[in-house]
Design brief:
single chain, alpha+beta, Rossmann fold, Threonyl-tRNA Synthetase, Chain A, domain 2, 3 domains, eight-stranded mixed β-sheet, five-stranded mixed β-sheet, 19 helices, 27 strands, about 25% strand
Length: about 600
């Protein structure tokens, strides 16, 4: 019987995926108390390191959003045992209740103090500091160049609310041609409870690591033999990517866009005209010579869309023009910064460009915001952090155009009803922009979507349109990406779901589990019926016992498993087990077919049964 079949398996084998309640932890940039704690803790750490390792030289030690770090030039590598010793020394320093005092000194005084300590890195840092020059002392034993702020006394630091987390390599000034340093990362909080929550989230982040999940679920790989930072999509991952792309295209057609396909390479002169060779050359692969001409792999899609616009004379009646492309680009990333799908050398941008009239800016930005929300919310990203970046000191374009463009962004955000922060002077040199971060299931923020107005490329390529009065005018160009890149978004999405993808997106949606050879034919027929409706179904033909069949399916995070015994075959039914909803009991085949088809067409997380 169906019930008997299900009861032969421990309920622990079919638990729904664990959900994590998001607990908001304060960020350094939003908490003056944390800023002071972490800045001070970095000095305490540096003092402890130099106490235990006198030959170690300090370089820089800033705070981060979740902690702090310091870079050291030390003749010996730091070990895990060293971190424990450093932490122990830090507690001693904290318990001494040492004052942290700010002192202003002349450049000459600072140079003399640095030379007396034989700290060459500090001399280089000093050269880049404008007066007044400040330093912070930590008791009578230690000091460093610093603008602050800090706590007044180490007694304000909680020795039970910090950890030293790891050691990593780093280059001085981030330049791989310069000295290699050792970076010690730490975290510090106001309370032990905050530290415990931070550590829980770190453990959860490890569980959700897209690189491990990508391997476990056979979604993608990065093959060293082919070169670093190049993604190989395996059949299961490729199927998911296709689903994402199909949804993206459908949403864009419905949003009033047309699609473009453009080349992967172009004559290098294009990148000279666009300005990429002047401003972006170090992130581009080298050129290749073909027929005595130099060609360049594209790092951006923008110039190709510009050339398409310029391919014929345009009228104001044609605007706005909305073009989108899933365009693969290639950028040189240094070996030390590549990370799974998050930072690669070849990736597909979901690029779009809108060419519009100045008075159309607000409407077009609002249209983009609506489309952005539609697409991101489909993948369960519904909490956003919005930043509006305004004109920087070094920029191009008339004040009137900048004012009109910035006001258009503000008006669109207000019409959308989204709260936002203003980053004064944080815009690109070619126009103001909106950046959108998405919050994942464990409270992390990820930069994805961006909307940028551009006065530069239309000028460089002399784009125009014929205005109503017959004159030729420059169009406003809007750059826009929602995912940012498919690869990075796929990684973020995988970690957000922890590999438990919603039904509509899962690479394998339903696995049929025949428990005897006698029902094998029934399972195969049902599988064919599901596939004919576009459902991604399979039959486990291993012949294993039911418990192992289910455990295998659970390991692959199959959303729905259909157990089939003699009773199910007699009643033209299945016994369903859902990762989301648990046991669903005996379900008629016709109901399974209808629910599966509906879940796909409506992009549902699970089956409505």
């Amino acid at each position: 019987m169906a019930v008997d079949v299900l009861e032969t398996v421990s309920s622990a084998a079919v638990t729904a995926p664990a959900t994590t309640e998001t607990v908001v932890l304060p960020k350094t940039s939003e908490s003056d108390a944390l800023l002071r704690i972490r800045h001070s803790m970095s000095h305490v750490m540096a003092m402890a390191v130099q106490k235990l390792f006198p030959k170690a030289q300090v370089t820089i030690g800033p705070w981060t959003e979740t902690g702090f770090y310091y870079d050291f030039d030390s003749p010996d590598p730091f070990t895990e045992a060293d971190l424990k010793a450093i932490r122990k020394e830090m507690i001693k320093i904290i318990n001494r209740k040492l004052p942290l005092e700010r002192i202003e000194v002349s450049r000459t005084e600072a140079e003399e103090k640095i030379k007396a300590q034989n700290e060459p890195y500090k001399l280089e840092i000093l050269a880049g500091i404008q007066e007044p020059i400040s330093l912070y002392t930590l008791g009578d034993d230690w000091w460093d160049l610093c603008a602050g702020p800090h706590v007044a006394n180490t007694s304000e630091l909680n020795p039970k609310a910090f950890e030293l987390e790891s050691v990593a390599g780093a280059y001085w000034r981030g330049d791989e041609t310069k000295a290699q340093l050792q970076r010690i990362y730490g975290t510090a909080w106001e309370t032990p409870e905050q530290l415990a929550e931070h550590k829980r989230r770190k453990e959860e982040a490890l569980r959700r690591d897209h690189r491990r999940i990508g391997t476990d679920l056979d979604l993608f790989s990065i093959e060293d033999e082919a070169g670093a930072g190049l993604v190989f999509w395996h059949p299961r991952g490729a199927r998911m990517r296709l689903l994402i792309e199909e949804f993206w295209r459908q949403a864009h057609f419905e949003g009033g866009y047309e699609l473009l396909y453009t080349p992967h390479v172009a004559d290098i002169s294009l990148w000279k005209t666009s300005g990429h060779l002047d401003f972006y050359a170090e992130s581009m692969f080298g050129p290749m010579e073909v027929d005595e001409r130099e060609y360049q792999l594209k790092p951006m899609n923008c110039p190709f869309h510009v050339l398409t616009y310029a391919s014929k004379l345009r009228s104001y009646r044609e605007l706005p023009i909305r073009w989108a492309e899933l365009g693969t680009v290639y950028r040189y990333e240094r070996p030390g910064v590549m990370h799974g799908l998050m930072r690669v050398r070849g990736f597909t941008q979901d690029d779009a460009h809108v060419f519009c009239l100045p008075e159309q800016i607000s409407d077009e930005i609002l249209r983009i915001l609506d489309l952005t929300e539609r697409i991101l919310s489909t993948f369960d990203f519904k909490n956003y952090e919005i930043n509006l970046s305004t004109r920087p000191e070094k920029s191009i374009g008339d004040d009137a155009v900048w004012d009109l463009a910035t006001q258009g962004l503000i008006e669109a955000l207000n019409r959308k009803g989204w709260a936002y922060k203003v980053d004064e002077g944080g815009g690109a040199f070619y126009g103001p922009k909106i950046d959108l971060k998405i919050e994942d299931a464990i409270g992390r923020m990820w930069q994805c979507s961006t909307i940028q107005l551009d006065f530069n490329l239309p000028e460089r390529f002399e784009l125009d349109y014929v205005a109503a009065d017959g004159s030729k005018q420059r169009p406003i160009m809007i750059h826009r990406a929602i995912f940012g890149s498919l690869e990075r978004f796929f990684g973020i999405m995988t970690e957000n779901y922890a590999g438990d993808f919603p039904f509509w997106l899962a690479p394998e949606q339903i696995r049929l589990l025949p428990v005897t050879d006698e029902v094998q034919s029934y399972a195969e027929t049902l599988c064919d019926q599901l596939k004919s409706l576009g459902v991604r179904a399979s039959v486990d033909r291993s012949g294993d016992r039911l418990g192992k069949l289910i455990r295998t399916g659970e390991k692959m995070k199959i959303p729905v498993m259909a157990v089939i015994g003699a009773k199910e075959a007699e009643q033209n039914a299945v016994s369903l087990r859902s990762r989301r909803d648990g046991d669903l009991g005996l379900v008629a085949v016709k109901d399974l077919l209808a629910a599966s088809q509906k879940a796909n067409s409506e992009r549902q997380a699970g089956l409505d049964l």
